[in-house]
Design brief:
By secondary structure, this protein is an alpha/beta fold. It has three domains: 63-209 and 292-407, TIM Barrel; 218-281, no CATH class; 427-507, Sandwich (Immunoglobulin-like), CATH 2.60.40. Helices cover 29% and strands 25% of the residues. The chain contains 15 helices and 24 strands. An eight-stranded parallel barrel has the order 3-4-7-10-13-14-15-16, surrounded by five helices. The protein has a six-stranded antiparallel beta sheet with strand order 2-1-17-18-23-20. A hairpin with a 5-residue loop joins strand 21 and strand 22 (471-476).
Length: 520
């Protein structure tokens, strides 16, 4: 079996419907990581009290969602994924229906201009499989990135100040594309039994996008800029990105492609000017917010009565003008959105759980319903830890949010421990939900002398005791080499009057020699 040293992160959730299964059980859902592991133990009894709920939760059950890419469905099958997610207490799937390439993983209701990603209806298969397991399906749609549409309508690309018209990112002001996107949303809403939508990439990419002739006309005719104030705005942008600029025949600053006018950039010059009250900078921000709000209103209406979520960059929660200038997003008072999903990728931003709290609280204070997206992956340069993910989840639930979404499936595993004092057994169930092999699992036993027997099944193939005696390393075989694979361990105490307890320590490939052991 191929060995992979890669961090894998998991989900911590103690849902009331799971917790109250048996009397006197200690149940844990665990985040797994090569680096660290946070365990939440809950003692269960017949008393359905607040002690059985996650700290900070409302009276409602905690709802855990995960983002799902089409390639995982293609590789592992919708039925297998649904079965694995159901065992893992994931109750909502946010399935990618429209990709950045502009392809649809659906088939029904598409016009001749729209492009299906596959020759079969993947969305239909996902809905059937997930609903059969009681899991809701939300259509995850990429809005303003559409390479397919731009290949047929290149004029609809948003204009980059230096590079010109994009062949990937769409101009939110393009009315033809707005109509096209509305039809894509309706094709899902009218033809599929989805439980709602999440709209992603519903924004500009950065402040250097949105500099077409039409944008200039809009700023001067609708937002009060003069030629001089527009040129001042361009000077701010050029200072920020070290662009070379010169005046064209109309006296308007444009990119000249020769040499930078500014040899040293001023970070966030345009945004800082807006913060300080610069009228041109604020007009620029307002135009972008209005355009993004406008297209979001249209797709919100197209979704009909179905629940909707709109992805919000975290800056929209903490830095008004940075979010407006870069993305055209603002936590304003319009409340046109059914719900917003702040992208709370704390590791990417170098933040901690207090930042997660601040972002969520800002939106809650403005009256928004929120479904936070939590980072559950490692980037190329920054590693998430199990503790950080747990802290972020706790920050969300402490504010009373009863649901959150993990980004994304393929980057974490789920472990489920049951320490049962009634029959003196302890069990561990690990489900591989990552893209790589699960090589081994390390557990500790509270007292190895109490062990009567150990049984392994699924992908668990062998064991080895370490020097301290109470630590057991479980090896895996090829059946744990793919997503949805499962390994099960059950330990029975030698004496029914002496309950046994186990704790999960880590997963990985630290140990390379395995000896099968079965205590008699």
């Amino acid at each position: 079996m191929k060995k992979n040293n890669i961090n894998r992160l998991g989900l911590v959730t103690n849902l009331k419907k799971i917790i109250m299964i048996k009397k006197f059980l200690s149940i844990s859902f665990l985040i797994i990581s090569l680096v660290s592991l946070m365990i939440v133990n809950v003692s269960c009894s017949d008393d359905d009290s607040s002690s059985s709920q996650r700290r900070g939760s409302t009276d409602e059950e905690q709802t855990v969602g995960t983002y799902l890419w089409a390639r995982h469905v293609r590789l592992y099958g919708a039925d297998s994924l649904a079965a694995a997610l159901a065992k893992s207490s994931v109750s909502e799937v946010y399935f990618l229906v429209k990709t950045e390439a502009g392809e649809m993983t659906s088939k029904k209701g598409l016009t001749s201009e729209m492009q299906a990603a596959y020759d079969y209806d993947m969305l239909d298969k996902v809905i059937t499989a997930m609903h059969n397991k009681g899991i809701k399906v939300y259509a995850w749609m990429i809005c303003l990135i559409d390479a397919h549409y731009l290949s047929n309508h290149p004029e609809a690309g948003v204009v980059h100040f230096r590079r010109g018209v994009s062949d990937k990112y769409v101009d939110p002001a393009n009315s033809d594309y707005q109509d096209y996107l509305v039809q894509e949303v309706k094709s899902i809403a009218d033809n599929y039994d989805v439980d709602g939508f999440i709209f992603d990439a519903d924004r500009y990419l950065a402040a250097y996008f949105g500099w077409s002739d039409a944008d200039y006309q809009r700023l001067t005719s609708e937002y009060g800029l003069t030629l001089d104030s527009y040129n001042h705005l361009v000077e701010l942008l050029a200072s920020q990105y070290e662009y070379g600029i010169s005046k064209n025949s109309e006296g308007r600053y444009v990119y000249d492609g020769v040499s930078p006018t500014y040899t040293e950039s001023e970070a966030d010059a345009l945004m800082n000017a807006a913060i300080k009250g610069d009228e041109a900078a604020r007009a620029f921000c307002q135009m972008r917010v209005d355009l993004i709000d406008g297209i979001c209103e249209k797709i919100y209406a197209a979704a009909g009565d179905l629940p909707t979520n709109f992805a919000f960059m975290s800056e929209a929660c903490t830095d008004r003008y940075i979010a407006a200038a870069h993305y055209g997003q603002e936590a304003n008072e319009k409340h046109i959105f059914g719900s917003v999903s702040p992208m709370l990728y704390s590791v990417e931003y170098g933040k901690d759980a207090s930042w997660v709290t601040k972002c969520c609280q800002t939106l809650i204070n403005k009256g928004y319903s929120i479904t936070p997206s939590i980072q559950a992956y490692n980037s190329d340069s920054k590693s998430s830890t199990a503790q950080q993910i747990l802290d972020d989840i706790n920050a969300v639930t402490e504010l009373g949010c009863n649901k959150y979404i993990l980004f994304r499936l393929g980057t974490y595993d789920i472990a489920h421990i049951v320490n049962n004092s009634t029959d003196a057994t302890a069990s561990l169930n690990v489900i591989n939900l990552s893209d790589v092999d699960l090589n081994n699992v390390t557990i500790t036993v509270d007292d190895i002398s109490k062990v009567g027997s150990i049984a392994l099944s699924g992908g668990f193939s062998g064991m080895k005791c370490t020097e301290n005696g109470n630590t057991i390393v479980i090896s895996t075989d090829d059946t744990m080499s793919g997503m949805c694979d499962e390994g099960i361990l059950k330990i029975t105490s030698a004496d029914d009057s002496k309950p046994i307890s186990i704790t999960l320590v880590e997963t990985g490939s630290k140990y390379t020699t395995w000896n099968d052991i079965v205590k008699k």
